[in-house]
Amino acid sequence: MIFVLLALALIFDFLNGFHDSSNVVATPISSNSMRPRLALLLAAVAHFVAPFLFGVAVATTIGEDLLNVDVLPVSAINAALAAAIVWNLITWYVGIPSSSSHALVGGLVGAAVVAEGVDAINPSGMLRVVTALLLSPLLGLAFGYLTMRVVLLAVRGSAPSVNTFFKRSQVFTLTGLSLSHGTNDAQKTMGVITMGLVAAGVLDTFAVPLWVIFLSASAIALGTFFGGWRLIRTLGGKIYRIRPVHAFSSQVSGASVIFGAALLGGPVSTTQVMSSSIMGVGAADRIKMVRWGILREFGTAWALTIPVTAVLAGVIYLLISAID
User: I need a surface site. Which of 151, 165, 259, 269 has the fewest CB within 10 A?
Assistant: First the structure.
């Protein structure tokens, strides 16, 4: 079961990077500020480095605080990962930027409830996770709007050559956004693997081993490098016509929200934060030019993710139990 857990967790981590690379590189690519492969390579390197630098607060929230690990079977964790993987593949194929974080949380909660009942859920941990997931898009929208307004004020009256600054500076903003995303999202896999090791009795207490950090960092970096091109096109063009100034502002605002949440242990959806940041940036420039109708498509995917993955994980757990 442990080897199955590791395989599923690393597949999920790879798909997380593959799926969410669009959130990180869509704006510099769409604004013609960076070549696609260079942007993905830079993002992948930063994703690998990030988990070694900024602690394990998010991993602890997911792996120790969300569920009562002592009563949870490893098969339930495997079912949760399988459900999240299936949902990520479906939404990638359709080209809808859904949330890997929502998929994982929904899967864990659904499998845990079917396996051990509602007592398997830790109310305080669940509240922290839900609060982070709900507040982060609003913060992304607000930070995107404010950042763009400040940037426009700062460059008011500048020559067109200011675009050169915004293009070149995205090497730094892309690196910062990638570090924040790698810090937040790789830790989710670290938390799930360590949760499984505790549930299986391999570890006595929740403490993320170095080899788990290395494997998680490697998988998300590899997935990021290969990139989800369907989603890059969605985020880069369907919300707003991206120019270098928009790419710069959305990366700064998104990285601020994601990194802040990671340090506080809040698992956020990078997809939601970056989508809302792009909308906030667009609204600060020309509110009528934002394609607000895309919110329905995004909102449907976001609203469905947790309940669908919860049900799917519960069904998968029952199938695993029946086979065993």
Answer: 165
71 contact partners, CB below 8 Å, separation of at least 6: 116, 119, 120
* 296-311: pLDDT as tens digits: 666 777 778 889 999 9
Q: Where do the DSSP E strands lie in the chain?
A: none
- pLDDT beyond 90 at 186: no
Provide DSSP, 13-36. HHHHHHHHHHHHHHHHHHTTSS-H
Can you give the C-alpha Rg of the chain in angstroms?
19
Work out the angle at residue 179's Cα, subtended by the Cα atoms of residues 310 and 274, and round it to the nearest 5 degrees.
55
Nearest-angstrom CA–CA distance, 185 and 100: 9
- Alpha-carbon distance of 52 to 277, in angstroms, equals 27
User: Which pair of tokens denotes residue 115?
Assistant: 């396996």
At position 280, the amino acid (one-letter code) is G
Domain boundaries, the chain: 2-323
Quote the tokens at residue 275. 């989508």
- Residue closest to 84 by CA, chosen among 10, 181, 168: 10
User: pTM value?
Assistant: 0.86
